[in-house]
Write a structure and sequence with these properties.
By secondary structure, the chain is of the alpha+beta class. The chain contains 15 helices and twelve strands. It has one domain: Cytochrome P450 (Cytochrome p450, Orthogonal Bundle), CATH 1.10.630.10. A five-stranded mixed beta sheet has the order 1-2-8-5-3. Strands 4-12-9 form a three-stranded antiparallel beta sheet. Strands 6-7 form a two-stranded antiparallel ribbon. A hairpin with a 4-residue loop joins strand 10 and strand 11.
């Protein structure tokens, strides 16, 4: 049994802030509502590492594949050889050494610029600051730098702030589709606006830069859009890649920054430990908060062939081919069987089973593990270190909002203030 080696919490201690109503301990494997629900760390990890045994079924992938005329699917959606090829080609943008070399200065500059707002001594909502900060960093990595960054952040936030049904599968019945048509039309309009105002200008600017570089001029930008143009992606295919990178790099980072700040605000000892630690120590704290508070709580997979699973009691389950799996990341990340009885308490540097990462399943695992994990942690470490050196205090009680399809949380109303800068 693993757990916290420093100051083990009582068995019933719970530090988690984001816990959907009704998401209490349930069976490791359960067939319900036409899906198989998988909740243990061992089985979630086994499925995510199963490679060709399953395929992506979350983030509206199946609805998109029925309705969009794409030859190349976004890296989030693709599977099999096409996905492996995509991941190998984009790896150079997200390797830890590359991230530290190419983006540390950018992240530091953007963090200082946005956190300077606290110098006026007035209260500020961290949600807005975190959104614009994470958007500008992600925009540089992607190449979305030919439009107004603040307006782009608002456009993306508006697009992702959709009813739950917009993020799931299209309704099957004709009447349900009729009723949901206005929402889908609104979503399509927001996506079109993002394309016209942000993606198309970026594509045009990149093509000009590539042509100039080809004629012996300035060096072409080295980012995702340059790579996609070089691979012959269509404008629609580039749009879809920008959208998926935007969700991962802007929206999820925004929420984690706030959640981590909330924990550090309320736990003075942890905050002092964070501020006095070296980089490895700060990252250990961030990984543990992320383990406890994964931004995406559920992942989905579709079984290709019959899939046998054996739970911790030795009971065998045969998942039929074609079945949809709902993987509970939040429960896997606090599985007491592998993480100890104090798995719902916060303990940076806790003992973990061999092969389990500090954040456990919060970045996913296997072939679809989040490629941007290194830059997300770099952003969080630098932003929060600079934030708390301003001696900020909490001015309001935050609230949690939920997106039910992926059990993703949004922190709202995290209002902070710092002493006025002299």
């Amino acid at each position: 049994m693993t757990g916290c080696p420093h100051s083990p919490a009582p068995r019933d201690a719970v530090d988690r802030k984001a816990l959907p109503a009704g998401e209490t301990p349930l069976p490791e494997v359960e067939e319900r509502d036409g899906q198989w629900h998988i909740r243990s760390l061992a089985l979630v990890r086994e499925i995510l590492r199963a490679g060709g045994a399953t395929k992506q079924s979350g983030f509206a992938v199946e609805a998109a594949m029925r309705s969009l005329p794409l030859k190349r699917w976004p890296v989030l959606y693709a599977d099999g050889p096409a996905h492996r090829e995509q991941r190998s080609k984009i790896a150079r943008f997200f390797a830890p050494a590359v991230v530290d070399r190419d983006y540390r200065d950018l992240v530091s500059q953007r963090a200082d610029a946005f956190l300077a707002q606290f110098d006026d001594g007035q209260p500020h909502d961290l949600s807005d600051i975190a959104l614009h900060f994470s958007t500008q960093v992600a925009a540089r990595v992607i190449g979305l730098t030919a439009s107004d960054q603040e307006r782009m952040a608002r456009r993306l936030a508006g697009f992702f702030d959709q009813p739950d049904s917009m993020l799931g599968e299209l309704p099957e019945s004709w009447w349900a589709r009729v009723r949901s048509a206005p929402d889908h039309a609104q979503q399509a309009a927001k996506l079109g606006w993002f394309f016209l105002k942000d993606v198309r200008p970026a594509i045009r600017a990149h093509r000009v830069a590539l042509e100039t570089a080809g004629q012996g001029g300035a060096t072409a930008p080295d980012d995702v859009i340059t790579h996609l143009i070089g691979e012959g992606y269509s404008e629609l295919e580039i749009l879809m890649e920008c959208l998926t990178y935007g969700a991962a790099g802007m929206v999820t980072t925004r929420e984690f920054l706030q959640m981590a700040a909330w924990h550090l605000l309320e736990k003075q000892d942890l905050r002092q430990r964070f501020l006095s630690a070296d980089s490895a120590g700060r990252r250990a704290i961030l990984h543990e908060i992320l383990r406890l508070e994964p931004v995406v709580g559920h992942l989905y997979r579709r079984v290709r062939d019959d899939l046998p699973l054996v739970d911790s009691t030795g009971t065998e389950h045969l998942i039929p081919a074609g079945s949809r799996l709902q993987l509970y990341i939040r429960q896997a990340n606090s599985d007491a069987r592998q993480l100890g009885d104090d798995a719902e308490s916060l303990c940076p540097g806790r003992d973990l089973p061999r092969g389990v990462r500090p954040e456990v399943m919060a970045f996913g695992d296997g072939v679809h593990r989040c490629p941007g994990n290194s830059i997300a942690i770099l952003e969080s470490e630098i932003f929060l270190d600079r934030l708390f050196r301003r001696d900020v205090t909490l001015r309001s009680t935050p609230r949690i909002e939920w997106e039910d399809v992926v059990a993703g949380y949004a922190v709202r109303g995290l209002v902070l203030a710092a002493p006025r800068s002299s």
